[in-house]
Amino acid sequence: MRPRLSTDRPDTKGVTLVELLVVIAIIGILIALLLPALSSAKAKAARTVCINNQKQLATALLLYAEQSPEGSFPSTNLPAYAPNSIEWLTNDISSSYRFFIAPELGENTRVFQCPADTFAYACCAGDDWIVLNQGFHQTFGLSYGFNGRNYPTNVPPPYSGLAGLPLERVPRPERTVLTYDGTVFPRYTWHEPKQPPDHQRPVRNVMSFVDGHVEFLRTVGATLASTNSGVLSDPPPGFGYQWNAN
Predict the structure, then answer these.
(1) What is the pLDDT of residues 39-93, one digit of tens each?
(2) Tally of helices (H runs) and strands (E runs) in the chain
(3) Would you call 217 helix, strand, or coil by DSSP?
(4) Which of 118, 116, 243 is nearest to 177 (CA)?
(5) Nearest Cα to 129, choosing from 205, 192, 186, 87?
């Protein structure tokens, strides 16, 4: 007589609700720990692109100065509402410099846009600041300014910045700003966005210099100086840059 084969299967233990909740909690903790690292890596990557962008702009501006008949940086303002312009301050050399260095950059127009430039601040009633879901380049057509120091527009030379200045006459090229993040003057930064504009608190922005190097350094919002040209003043002592090239 053959032995009977048992058809009974061994008991299988299912996942309990408590175990499932524990797994979900662990995954949530891991995600919470991972998000700051991912955010930091994304910010660092955007900053690296911003540094590379200004490196290219600095190279293009230096090439322009070297190849111009006078050996000077751009100075001639374009008429208002120039073709292909999307910002209102077209005749300001600090914005319209892009048209002068276009031959050096070719079709690479994205070099004027910082990937971290995705928001702006606006002040409402009182001291509250509102974060706008738009970038500096959406308002002005580019993320980076040229140190033309030509405020207000159509101010005749001499300028206190680089507009129309011969390259060989810049006394401290390693310290004199060539290009800068547009957030320097509004007193905030795209790279550390949790800090709203503040007249007193330094923030960090990317700047290129006349000697060609680029830094992510501490900046302070410049204040209006009482000069005939109405330019913005140099930062206080202790900061590693200057606007005035004279």
Answers:
(1) 677 888 999 999 999 999 999 999 999 999 889 998 866 554 444 444 444 457 8
(2) 4, 6
(3) strand
(4) 243
(5) 186
> pTM to 2 decimals?
0.76
Q: Are 130 and 124 in contact (CB under 8 A)?
A: yes
Measured CA to CA, the distance from residue 214 to residue 54 in angstroms comes to: 7
CA distance 149 to 13: 75
Residues 134-181 pLDDT 10s: 888 887 789 999 998 654 444 555 556 788 889 999 989 999 999 999
Residue with tokens 């300028």: 159
42 in helix, strand or coil?
helix
Which 8-state DSSP code applies to residue 224? Answer: B
Domain ranges of the chain: 42-219
